[in-house]
UniProtKB/TrEMBL annotation:
Protein name: FAD-binding oxidoreductase
Alphabetically ordered keywords of this record: FAD, Flavoprotein, Oxidoreductase
Source organism: Blastococcus goldschmidtiae
Family according to the record: Belongs to the FAD-binding oxidoreductase/transferase type 4 family.
Ranges of residues in domain FAD-binding PCMH-type: 37-218
Record carries keyword Cytoplasm: no
Domain of life: Bacteria
Keyword Oxidoreductase in annotation: yes
Secretion signal span: none
InterPro entries: FAD-bd_oxidored_4_C, FAD-bd_PCMH, FAD-bd_PCMH-like_sf, FAD-bd_PCMH_sub1, FAD-bd_PCMH_sub2, FAD-linked_Oxase-like_C, FAD-oxidored/transferase_4, Oxid_FAD_bind_N
Pfam families xref list: FAD-oxidase_C, FAD_binding_4
């Protein structure tokens, strides 16, 4: 067990407010947003500065105690949840919420790791700028978590993932040293680009304490449409049409199966269907421009007219006014939460080349329906990035536990199919604890060896978020 003396030394660093040991207060830090993973911990430490983070990590390292970094705890693969030993310390960044600087000329913002994503978007908007990362969890997830998972979301098509949005990092290394890499440079060819080691590392190589992020010109006009489609193949064709016509103005292109939308209609407050009859697939398309009068509505209508002419689209609505735009996004963003009302949701966050998506869905759906007749396949996601959330729910009258027991077998079906199309078993959520063993079967052995070498170099004692990412 962790010694009372260790807790006393941690309290000396972070103060009374920074140390949580009461079981009732610990609870919220010990399981994830979905309640899919649960652990236990000796304490939660909440440092308020980079120096405090460094001191905490040094103390834990000296005593051989493992540290689990945690941001908003919205991760979907158990990366921020401690193990069951009760010996680990959760290091929450929630008291590090300062926007350190906004530089509109350099188009950068410097923030601490615990700043909530939405607060960064708002700080950028207050300067007439845009911070474009956009996720359903943006009201709770933090910049440290976004960097550590290399978060994607609904605007990757235009602006890239978190990796593309970061210019510099400040990181506390597993031995407590601080790497001061907070540079706001768009060009810096002085050797290996170390920040990329920590982005997407899910807290296994160090604790990110601050970052310099890119800003963009504010978007002043938007056009949003909801399009009904007969097939995934038609959705991919529509993507080609819109992209060819609208180029960089295309910011979002989100696919949803009818099953996904039905869950939101059933459980989402105020959600309503847009067309008289159900369609097998829907796409939410969004264009954006920095000009206030960019004529985006007309441009989108031209793209849709071409889609109708080529018999790609079945029906479409171009949103009129911000209330309707919000309602369309609520239909899309509500899927993840709505699925939780339908029993266990088995999540598979995969990517394949855009050109393979239609064949991939056809083949995977067929295999899943053969394995579990009546299975509800909740496919949706960022199809413009080749990224689908291939989530599964039990048959309508199925049993929760019986379905959960088949999780590994059903996961194999999805991942084997993904792999046969040269895809990845994690597009944006990471490996955490859920896919840590699985990755050994789908990733090149040399790549895994190099990853182990990097881990060994930075964290030879394996005390930084052990049991995550790397296969045991
Ligand atoms: P946490 O869950 O707290 O942690 C995630 C991982 O990062 C853990 O391994 C943790 O140890 C590590 N970590 C956290 N902070 C630090 C730090 N400062 N230093 C080092 N390591 C750290 N994700 C997407 O990519 N795209 C989406 O579209 C998307 N939509 C979502 C919608 C909903 C409704 C929900 C609930 C989640 C969604 N997610 C999505 C997943 C999740 O929100 C992201 O992974 C997010 O980036 C996690 O941020 P967080 O602060 O909650 O991190
Ligand atoms: C989303 O895009 O909504 C999430 O990344 C997917 C999920 O919650 O499975
Ligand atoms: Zn997603």
């Amino acid at each position: 067990m962790t010694s009372p003396e260790l807790l006393e030394r941690l309290r000396e660093v972070v103060g009374e407010e920074g140390l949580v040991t009461e079981p009732a207060q610990l609870d919220g830090y010990l399981s994830d947003w979905r309640g899919a993973y649960r652990g236990t911990a000796a304490a939660v430490v909440r440092p308020a500065s980079t120096e405090e983070v460094a001191a905490v990590v040094r103390i834990c390292s000296g005593d051989g105690v493992a540290v689990v970094p945690q941001g908003g705890n919205t991760g979907l693969c158990g990366g921020a949840v401690p193990d069951a030993s009760g010996r680990q310390v959760v290091l929450s960044l929630e008291r590090m919420r300062r926007v350190r600087a906004v530089d509109p000329v350099n188009q950068t913002i410097t923030v601490e790791a615990g700043v909530v994503l939405q607060a960064v978007q708002e700080a950028a908007a207050a300067q007439g700028c845009l911070f474009p990362l956009s996720l359903g969890s943006e009201g709770s997830c933090t910049i440290g978590g976004n960097l550590s998972t290399n978060a994607g979301g609904t605007a990757v098509l235009r602006y890239g993932t978190m990796r593309d949005l970061a210019l510099g990092l400040e990181v506390v290394l597993p031995d407590g040293r601080i790497w001061h890499g907070l540079r706001g440079l768009r060009k810096d060819n002085t050797g290996y680009d170390l920040k990329h080691l920590f982005i997407g590392a899910e807290g296994t190589l160090g604790v990110v304490t601050a970052a310099v992020l890119k800003l963009f010109p504010a978007v002043r006009s938007r056009a949003t449409a909801w399009v009904a489609l007969p097939s995934v193949r038609a959705a991919v064709e529509l993507f080609g049409i819109v992209r060819a016509l609208c180029g960089d103005r295309l910011t979002g292109f989100e696919l949803m199966s009818r099953q996904s939308v039905e869950f939101v209609l059933r459980h989402g407050a105020g959600a309503r269907d847009l067309f008289g009859a159900p369609h097998p697939w829907y796409v939410l398309v969004e264009l954006g421009d920095t000009l206030p009068e960019a004529g985006l509505g007309g441009l989108l209508e031209s793209a849709l007219a071409e889609a109708f002419e080529r018999e790609v689209a079945g029906d479409a609505v171009v949103a009129s006014g911000s209330a309707q735009v919000d309602a369309l996004w609520a239909l899309r963003e509500g899927i993840s939460e709505a699925q939780n009302f339908e029993g266990p949701s088995l999540k598979h966050d995969v990517t394949v080349p855009v050109s393979s998506i239609a064949d991939f869905v056809e083949r995977t759906d067929r295999a899943l329906r053969e394995a579990v007749p009546g299975i509800r396949i909740v496919v949706y996601g960022h199809i413009g990035d080749g990224n689908l959330h291939y989530n599964l729910s039990k048959p309508e009258d199925g049993d929760d536990d019986a379905f959960r027991r088949r999780a590994d077998e059903l996961g194999r079906i999805v991942y084997d199919s993904t792999s046969s199309f040269d895809g990845s078993i994690s597009a944006e959520h990471g490996l955490g604890q859920s896919k840590r063993e699985l990755v050994a079967d789908y990733k090149d052995a040399l790549e895994l060896d190099l990853m182990r070498g990097i881990k060994q170099l930075l964290d030879p004692r394996g005390l930084m978020n052990p049991g995550k990412v790397l296969p045991g």
